[in-house]
Design goal:
It is found in: Cytoplasm. With 522 residues, the protein is α/β, with parallel strands linked by helices. Helices cover 27% and strands 19% of the residues. The chain has helices spanning 100-115, 139-155, 169-175, 188-198, 240-244, 252-264, 300-307, 329-333, 350-356, 362-375, 394-407, 434-457; strands spanning 91-96, 119-120, 129-134, 159-163, 181-182, 222-226, 228-229, 248-249, 269-273, 288-291, 294-297, 313-316, 340-342, 380-387, 411-416, 463-472, 475-480, 491-494, 504-512, 517-521. A five-stranded parallel β-sheet has the order 2-1-3-4-5, sandwiched between helices. A five-stranded mixed β-barrel has the order 16-17-18-20-19. Strands 6-9-12 form a three-stranded parallel β-sheet. The chain binds iron/sulfur cluster (SF4).
Length: 522
């Protein structure tokens, strides 16, 4: 969870808030009609810095609209439930909080509404209704969600709440009884129905407002591709299964058609996300579905292979070290899929992992990683860890420190444990005092920085393909195959010839620190 990505993924956004990244990234909404070179607004966190804690993205969805002349009732209505008198297309203001999976939910809702003729407002007070997609993974994320709802109520008064926090509507209703509607995660139809009730669509059948790939909140050159919802695991620090339910996989053909549309629309990098990507298809018994002239199984390997044929970079997030992940590594060695695995491990002490109810034995994980690197020597592994889990002893923490020194992972984030209301872990042991949590995080990050710096310096002199994220007054910034947007490091690039956002160029690496690389286009 980065929260920037932050949510759900507890694996993406482990409890506790991480180091670095003080401010949430703000992205401008963009669609085909109004793409911004938006990465200016979304500075990438540094390599080895942990993902952002809890609430990630507060998207300031300032879409330019095709109907500048349209008018909306923007004054606060005396009866908030009464539909405003709207001339022209009704306008929606949208706040998206949480991880990339929540971001995909927001994109789906917006795609649907844009298809019906709704426009996006730049500000709450110019909108007919405000939608807040909440994050409920951490208590701090809930507080931020409640604050976002409060802001929308104060500035507009006609507010629909959805997302993870919507699974517990009482808490929200208690604070904001006048909300128009509260719906749970993935309840797209309920959100859309609530919008219809609040402000009916002014449909214009002659306008095609929505690009075939849907409305995207990311810059044009990369997109998140959600392959499933929910999770069958029951990690003790996580309430995501309670909020989002058990695993529900999308048919492989649906995922591939969406990916194909994205690539046709100019997306150069597909970021595969879910709660547990390696479990893809278990719930539907790996069912086949039609894709082009053949049938494709809903299986991790089969999907990765087919995605690798689409001509874009394919990056796999939230992969667990299950044995069948071995099959995908040769695809990375062949260049079909990026040599990058985002694998949230959370700890390395067997006793802590047992209390966390996480799969895996750290000895076997080390052996598995060693074999993966034999098959694909330039594999980059990103992981996140929690320190200060209830009852964590100094000896257990030392096991973790020894493990990360030996595993030599390229990108690592560290979070202190934060007790999430309702998580069984809170009762599993004595709480580690906050000052000790912070001290352990500092020791962990110091140890990892030594590893990261050595691995980064080994890239000096190499020529790497780099995808350009931003070109501006601050210079040119991109990412190598080893860096995911928002959570990893950057490559600072100089170039004698013009480069544009989304270009993939070859860069000779000339300098490195523990997070970023520097080099020139060759
Ligand atoms: S229960 Fe599922 S979503 Fe939660 S941390 Fe575990 S694997 Fe991730």
């Amino acid at each position: 969870m980065p929260q920037g990505f932050a949510t759900d993924a507890p694996d993406a956004i482990p409890p506790g808030g991480g180091a670095g990244l003080a401010r949430p990234a703000r992205s401008r909404y963009s669609d085909d009609a109004s793409r911004q070179s938006g990465s200016d607004d979304t500075p990438a966190p540094k390599t080895s810095r942990p993902r952002r804690p809890g609430i990630l993205e507060a998207f300031d969805l300032a879409a330019s609209t095709p109907h500048e002349g349209s008018m909306t009732a923007s004054a606060l209505p005396s009866d908030p439930k009464a539909a405003p008198k709207t001339l022209g297309a009704p306008k929606i203001s949208f706040v998206s909080l949480g991880c990339p999976k929540a971001l995909v939910d927001s994109e789906r809702i917006l795609t649907h509404l844009r298809a019906e003729g709704y426009e996006l407002a730049r500000r709450h007070d110019g909108a007919d209704v405000v939608i807040v997609n909440t994050c409920g993974f951490l208590d701090s994320a809930k507080a931020e969600s409640l604050a976002a709802i409060g802001e929308a109520m104060a500035e507009n008064g006609r507010v629909i709440v959805t997302g993870c926090m919507g699974a517990q509507p009482e808490e929200i209703r208690e604070k904001y009884p006048n909300l128009l509607a509260v719906t749970g995660p993935q309840a797209y139809e309920s959100v859309v129905a609530a919008v219809h009730e609040a402000v009916p669509p002014a449909h214009d059948p002659f306008l095609d407002l929505v690009p075939p790939q849907g409305v995207k909140l990311t810059p044009r050159h990369y997109a998140y591709l959600k392959i499933s919802e929910g999770c069958n695991n029951r990690c003790t620090f996580c309430i995501i299964p309670f909020l989002r339910g058990d695993l529900v996989s999308r048919p492989a053909g649906d995922v591939l058609r969406e990916a194909e549309k994205l690539v046709k629309a100019g997306v150069k990098e597909l970021l595969v996300v879910s709660q547990d990507t390696s479990a893809y298809g278990v719930d539907i018994r790996y069912a086949e579905s039609p894709w082009r002239d053949r049938a494709v199984r809903a299986k991790f390997y089969d999907l990765a292979k087919e995605l690798g044929e689409l001509g874009a970079w394919v990056r796999l997030h939230y992969v667990y070290p299950y044995p069948h992940v071995d099959e995908v590594i040769p695809l990375m060695a062949e260049g079909k899929v990026l040599p990058y695995l985002d694998m949230p491990l959370q700890h390395a002490s067997p006793t802590v992992l047992k209390r966390m109810r996480r799969p895996g034995n750290q000895e076997r994980q080390l052996e598995r990683i060693r074999r993966w690197r034999e098959t694909c020597p330039d594999l980059a592994i990103r992981s996140t860890f929690i320190v200060g889990f209830p009852g964590e002893t100094e000896a257990e923490f030392s096991e973790l420190l020894d493990w990360i020194k030996e595993a030599k992972l390229e990108r690592v984030g560290c979070f202190t444990y934060e007790p999430v209301t309702g998580a069984p872990a809170n009762a599993l042991g004595e709480a580690v005092p906050p000052e000790l949590q912070l001290e352990r995080k500092r020791r962990f990050m110091e140890a990892q920085q030594i590893v990261s710096l050595r691995l980064q310096k080994a890239r000096i002199g190499k020529r790497l393909p780099v995808i350009i994220d931003t070109v501006g007054a601050d210079g040119i910034k991109g990412r190598s195959k080893y860096d995911a947007p928002e959570i990893d490091g950057s490559v600072h690039v100089t170039s004698r010839r013009p480069v544009r956002q989304g270009d993939v160029v070859t860069v000779k690496i000339e300098a490195a620190d523990a997070y970023d690389l520097r080099g020139s286009v060759v």
